[in-house]
UniProtKB/TrEMBL annotation:
Domain of life, per lineage: Bacteria
Name the UniProt record assigns to this protein: DUF2157 domain-containing protein
Transmembrane stretches, start-end: 46-67, 79-101, 113-134, 140-158, 165-181, 201-220, 232-250, 262-282, 289-310, 316-333
Record's keyword terms, sorted: Membrane, Transmembrane, Transmembrane helix
Residue ranges of coiled coil: none
């Protein structure tokens, strides 16, 4: 059995404990220990990181392309002779990458990260095709939500049938973008829609996404999309709650005259959501819920610390207390780390 150094330590510790408790004999423990083969380099993790870095570089290259006005002018002049060149060419490239990714996934399922990278290129060219379609259909109304909805349809189908968590993530991000653009258009791009500013809308959106994720968990598990869906729903919910704890349900103009007491209920709601998340994680042993709950509970506490003590406390004392609290957290994390990685 090939294992990493960390996995080997965990397994050896479990075998030692089982042997001490009498669940395993010394001979069985030695035999099982002998089956472990340490992998010097975690090639799977290296492959994942390499493809992530490659995709990040591709996005940086694309951003640099758009930032280069001379090169963009040359490209636009080159393809400006027809709408097909501007819309059809990236669309065809996107379809080609999707088909290539599906074929590779079906025939060579072991190449997971390279297949995800190919599908991601399809995502990029789909976005370019939709951008050019929007330029072509623009009538000055500013109604761009249908383009995000079209992206949702494409990314949702590709992510679901391709069992691609990466493409499914773009589906969920496009869905959130559609919600923001559609409600913004319906409200005349004002601060409120049905009495809700943008963060409040995304609190409901994140909650609805988590509810759907739970209700469809069996289907999402089969398509390997449950983890991505749950993480994205939690991210929408907690980031929106964090923003609400700072700004409340106010527009920018009225926010300047808002008292801290008026924002306190939102901060308490943020804390309650984090505590509930931690409580459920302790009941279900869900590491993701525990991580989100602890992380955003800490973010809430430090946000309130800056909010309430930045103006009224001497900066020497302010940063000294901040340093002490961070050192305590670091020491606690160090204890957990050493508890999970005992010295051999």
């Amino acid at each position: 059995m090939k294992v990493t150094r960390k996995q080997e330590r965990t397994i050896r510790r479990a075998l030692d404990e089982w042997e001490q408790e009498g669940a395993l004999s010394a001979a069985d423990a030695q035999r099982l220990t002998g089956t472990l083969k340490r992998v010097v380099l975690d090639w799977q993790r290296l492959s994942r990181y390499a493809f992530w870095t490659a995709l990040a570089c591709a996005m940086i290259a694309l951003g640099s392309l758009f930032a280069d006005s001379e090169l963009m002018t040359w490209i636009i002049d080159l393809i400006s002779f027809s709408s097909f060149a501007r819309i059809g060419l990236p669309a065809l490239l996107a379809v080609g990458f999707y088909l290539w990714g599906f074929r590779r996934q079906r025939q060579e399922s072991q190449w997971h990260y390279s297949t995800e990278a190919i599908l991601f290129l399809g995502v990029l060219f789909t976005a370019i095709a939709l951008w050019q379609l929007g330029e072509r259909l623009d009538n000055g109304s500013g109604h761009i939500a249908p383009l995000f909805l079209a992206g949702c349809a494409v990314y949702g189908l590709v992510g679901y049938f391709g069992r691609s968590g990466l493409v499914w993530l773009f589906f969920l991000l496009s869905l959130g973008s559609w919600l923001g653009a559609e409600t913004g258009y319906m409200s005349g791009w004002g601060a409120y829609w049905l009495g809700m500013n943008y963060p409040v809308r995304f609190i409901f959106f994140g909650g609805a996404l988590l509810a759907l994720c739970w209700g469809l968990r069996s289907i999402l598990h089969r398509r390997h999309l449950y983890t991505t869906s749950k993480a994205t729903g939690l991210m929408y919910l907690f980031i929106a709650l964090w923003i609400m704890s700072i700004f409340g349900n106010y527009d920018i103009d009225s926010w300047y005259g808002t008292t801290r007491a008026a924002l306190l209920p939102w901060a308490l709601l943020f804390a309650v959501a984090a505590v509930i998340c931690i409580y459920i994680s302790l009941k279900t042993d869900d590491g993701m819920l525990r991580g989100f709950g602890l992380t955003f509970l800490g973010i809430n506490l430090y946000t309130r610390y800056f909010e309430y003590f930045w103006d009224g406390m001497h900066k020497v004392l302010f940063f000294l207390l901040l340093a002490v609290s961070l050192a305590v957290i670091g020491r606690y994390a160090e204890r957990i780390w050493h508890a999970g990685n005992p010295a051999k």
